[in-house]
Amino acid sequence: SGEPNLQDMIRQLGESLTSVKHEQEYMSVRDRIHRSINESTNSRVVWWSFFEAVVLVTMTIGQIYYLKRFFEVRRVV
């Protein structure tokens, strides 16, 4: 008869399980890599935002200082 016997079915099931296990391992490694990339990118964004804030505050202070000096009344002695 053309029906697969029990041993063939068990072997095919074992091969399928091995394939699923390899796929899970691959996905786990891929997940770790992507998580690392995301954390690195997030860290860079945070530091860049901090740098931009420092530059913005520095420029604001510089402009205030410059405008105060610009509109200062100068007395000729």
TrEMBL record:
Keyword Membrane attributed = yes
Task: Kindly state which keywords UniProt assigns to this record, in alphabetical order.
Answer: Developmental protein, Membrane, Signal, Transmembrane, Transmembrane helix
Q: How does it sit in the membrane?
A: Single-pass type I membrane protein
Please report the stretch or stretches of sequence annotated as the GOLD domain. 5-72
Compartments annotated for it: namely:
Membrane
Pfam families reported in the protein's UniProt record: EMP24_GP25L
Family of the protein in this entry: Belongs to the EMP24/GP25L family.
Report the protein name in the record: Transmembrane emp24 domain-containing protein-like
Species this chain originates from: Diaphorina citri (Asian citrus psyllid)
